[in-house]
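quick q for whoever's on today - can somebody do inverse folding on this one?? i tried earlier but teh output was garbage lol. tokens:
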């Protein structure tokens, strides 16, 4: 096996080990027992994935690297302890999606079902974020995407993601328009000209949205 293959196996092992540590941290920070159980189950799966890559590394006669949680994992764990695990779920969900896509190009990961499992993890995190009861997720075997979509239902279409987008959009509009007005005011224009510039910026921002 080429050196690049060993580097790939090592990187996969490190990523899965890091993911397991993150889910363990989420489980410790979670106050709801059912949700904490979901995080512990996800951690166990990540640990199994890490063991899959570890076996391949050891089969080559190479030594396993000493892996410690990275800065990103430590930061997410800190935020989860400070603000609650749900605060970091969108970020972790996106990471799981990327991991699934990464494994799509690795035949051994696809054959072992790692790619599909990572995508299922992202679906389960999305369900938690959308308000699906953790008791429906903390059971043997992960839910399928169709089951999660059915549990979420239409009532979540205007949930947290829409609210987050609205808040970010409002902040962006306020900051950009305020910056425009301040820049024009710095040019020592007349008051009515500054007012017209601000109104023009508001209309332009509204049209662009």
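ok took a stab at it. sequence:
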């Amino acid at each position: 096996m080429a050196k690049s293959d060993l580097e790939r196996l090592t990187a996969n092992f490190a990523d899965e080990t890091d993911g397991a540590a993150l889910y363990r941290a989420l489980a410790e920070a979670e106050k709801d027992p059912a949700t904490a159980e979901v995080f512990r189950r996800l951690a166990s799966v990540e640990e199994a994935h890490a063991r899959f890559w570890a076996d391949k590394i050891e089969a080559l006669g190479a030594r396993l690297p000493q892996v410690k949680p990275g800065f990103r994992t430590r930061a997410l764990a800190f935020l989860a302890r400070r603000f609650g695990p749900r605060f970091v779920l969108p970020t972790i969900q996106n990471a799981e999606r990327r991991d699934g896509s990464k494994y799509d190009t690795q035949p051994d990961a696809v054959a072992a079902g790692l790619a599909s499992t990572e995508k299922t993890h992202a679906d389960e995190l999305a369900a938690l974020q959308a308000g699906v009861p953790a008791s429906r997720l903390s059971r043997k075997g992960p839910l399928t995407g169709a089951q999660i979509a059915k549990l979420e239902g239409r009532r979540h279409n205007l949930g947290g993601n829409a609210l987050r987008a609205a808040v970010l959009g409002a902040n962006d509009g306020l900051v950009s328009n305020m910056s425009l007005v301040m820049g024009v005011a710095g040019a020592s224009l007349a008051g009515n000209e500054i007012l017209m510039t601000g109104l023009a910026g508001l209309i332009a921002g509204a049209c662009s949205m």
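fwiw The mean pLDDT is 78. also The radius of gyration is 23 Å. so keep that in mind when u check it
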